[in-house]
Amino acid sequence: MKYLPITSKLFTQNRQRFIKKMKSNSIAIFTANPVFPENGDAVYSYKANSDVVWLSGVVQEKTMVILYPDNADENAREILVIQRPNEHMEKWNGHLLRKDEATAISGIANVQYVDSIDALLHVWMHYADRVYLNTNENDRLNLENPRLDLLFVHRFMQQYPLHRYDRAARIMKELRAIKTKEEIEITNVAIDITHKALNRVLQFVKPGVMEYEIEAEITHEFLCNRATRHAYGCIIASGDSARVLHYVENNRPCKDGDLLLMDFGAEYGNYNADLTRTIPVNGKFTKRQKEVYDACLAVHLYCASILKPGINYADYIEKVNLEMEKQLLKIGLLTKADIKNQDPSNPAYRKYFYHGIGHHLGLDVHDVGTRNEPVKEGMLFTIEPGIYVEEEQMGIRIENNYWLTKSGNIDLFKGIAMTTDEIEAAMRAGKKK
Questions:
Q1: Which of 147, 176, 205 corresponds to the end of one domain?
Q2: Rounded to an integer, what distance in angstroms lies between the CA atom of residue 212 and that of residue 234?
Q3: pTM of the prediction?
């Protein structure tokens, strides 16, 4: 891993948070993501299971975390399972964790190997009454694909059919949605790296550069600052491409007079940043570009003013949509007649703003957490309104990350160029060097 070591106290704290939610005499089992084949004998770059990482900090494949707080054996109440080191395979694929190294990362003293855990687990299962098994219950999960996370679940339930089973994901969704101070400290490193990358490209962008050259500048800055990877596919969309929400081709020239929408974030310590800025390729917004940008910024700032602990997320969305309607009316994209005659199931503003206002952020970019209850202190959200105008071949989105506190929220991207004047000034400064 490229990032600096993270204190095991974070993961010990996380396990204790989960254990407090478990029913009596129950055992919880968390398994790693599988390795996905690509073509031939190649495999995709490995991405660890977020729940396993949250509980242990270990990102190695085939890892398991087993929690059995009521185990009569005090030494077997927390178990970390890892691959047995193999000298031959390490010559091909690199170092595998030793038990002492795994303990140092996770804070779990009892470390076992995958090839020996079944016999131990079989004994513990004879005494446990309930079992928590983990599956991917992210609201945005694509259910068309085969559910590989269910293979272990089905096999285990066949082996032990008379136990009572519970969904670990219900607890994890509640707990992981609330970010601790320690988690925000790691997230802030990812945000700082993302900020550095933005500053780099603000000085780099000019008419004629290719979108992929900008992506390369971002990637360079990420890797130079110990980021593990991009948090998600880097979106560098100039001109009309900005209206495509998940545009990742990044293969077009940036033209004089166009806007450039950049949506990117660094992953550091497995936590993610998520930033969007829209800038003028030539360093100067036109009067119309500034007008639309300022309308989008007004919606963003309105979101930030009302997103506080206690507000129901559905009510928050409704209020934001009304503010977007107001701003679109103000800049002439909607008329009063459009609003009066709109279909309530497909309101007029949807022509220009056709995605959600934000999402939970954390170990996953679209992190787990409720979207139909009052938001709580400790939650971390993106705010990312956008205005997309087909007739003007223009797309604008402005995104920051907000951590909710007792008194409101903290903009973790505060101080990063956001207004049109700030963006123009940052781009001018870069050209003078």
A1: 176
A2: 10
A3: 0.95
